[in-house]
Amino acid sequence: MTEQIDQFFNPDGTLISIPVKSAKKIAVLLHIARDLSPTAKYPEKELNAIIAKYHDDTAAIRRHMIEYGILERDSESVYWVSVNS
User: Fold this and answer.
1) Which domains does the chain have, with CATH numbers?
2) What's the pLDDT tens digit per position in 56-69?
3) Residues with Cβ within 8 Å of residue 32, at least 6 apart in sequence
4) pLDDT (tens digit per residue) in 3-58
5) 39 vs 22: CA distance, rounded Å
């Protein structure tokens, strides 16, 4: 983890808060996304289980990841890592 985002994480790796500034928010989201396989598709429940290791508000993290183009989703609420991230 870079010093830039260390302040947002507890020593156990859980997220203290979601950064307000876009650059730091993206860095935090990309850090969480490293737990995702670039070739896998994740049903929402499975994705939530991975995100929950970092933060309880899985819906907010998912929304931010979609908003910043880190994840994509289909109409069946299946998610995958964007090829652009």
Assistant:
1) 3-81 (1.10.10)
2) 999 999 999 999 99
3) 15, 50, 51, 54, 61, 65
4) 689 999 999 999 999 999 999 999 999 999 999 999 999 999 999 999 999 999 99
5) 26
